Amino acid sequence: xxxxxxxxxxxxxxxxxxxxxxxxDKFEVVNLGTNSVESVHYPVFGKKLALEVLKHxxxxxxxxxSGIGISMQVNxxxxxxxxxxxxxxDAEMTKKHNNANILxxxxxxxxxxxxxxxxxxxxxxxxxxxxxxxxxxxxDQD
Length: 142
Known about the structure:
Elements: E1 3-8, H1 13-23, E2 28-31, H2 42-56, E3 60-64, H3 68-74, E4 82-84, H4 88-96, E5 102-106, H5 112-124, H6 131-139
Parallel strand pairs: 1-2, 1-3, 3-5, 4-5
Helix pairs in contact: 1-5, 2-3, 4-5
């Protein structure tokens, strides 16, 4: 069973927990927190997630209230390509053209059903490669 890392701040805690349960039938879900709705700082959990994805050459899902802050945090690490998605097309294209290794989503913006659909779309989409590979390599150039 493939492993997927998942983390959120307090604002997306409930949707992260819902999504972790939903994905547990298909993946070994490693829940990196937070573990309650008590206020926490999204950079702490974005960093934990990014480092685990890099360490295991894996994939992850990051969530905060808007998705913006945690996506900014995960993308601070060379080798991480976190894509903030707000609809199914975003979820498809962030993998198809950008080979995102972290799906970033908003906890306060989307229904549980849309969150599940975006995760499914992202997880089932293959990277197209080709001209997009050159662009991916440019992201990590100094």
